[in-house]
Design a protein that fits this description.
Layout (H helix, E strand, L loop, with lengths): L1 E4 L6 H11 L14 E4 L5 E5 L6 H6 L11 E5 L11 E9 L2 E9 L1
Parallel strand pairs: 1-4, 1-5, 3-4
Antiparallel strand pairs: 2-3, 5-6
Length: 110
């Protein structure tokens, strides 16, 4: 699982588009802000989530969010802080807009 962090417009969806391209996904990858989850088929399934509109972990559970982790695909989550403290292994990618472009920080979290 990969957590995408950054302000609005920092490039989270653009990064998801790059991951999708790397997985051989040819359909347009868009922000799942209103759908909450977009699913794409490629060499591995891609599940792109945007939790911006959620207010609790209970809402995530109600939409079946945890089930995506059992589906043997790549899970990208924008606004994962809506889930509270994350107690599972993940990659955290922080995107930051700067005057001369974007700054990207990647770390493994356990």
């Amino acid at each position: 699982m990969v957590v995408l962090e950054g302000t609005l417009g920092a490039g989270k969806t653009t990064l998801a588009q790059g991951v999708a391209a790397g997985l051989g996904i040819t359909e347009a990858v868009t922000s799942p802000t209103f759908a909450l989850v977009q699913e794409y088929e490629g060499r591995l399934p891609l599940f792109h989530m945007d939790l911006y509109r959620l207010t609790s972990e209970d809402e995530f559970e109600q939409i079946g969010g945890w089930e995506y982790f059992q589906r043997n695909g790549v899970v990208l989550i924008e606004w994962a802080d809506r889930l509270g403290a994350l107690a599972f292994p993940r990659w955290e990618v922080h995107l930051e807009l700067r005057p001369r472009g974007r700054w990207v920080t990647v770390k493994e979290a356990l």
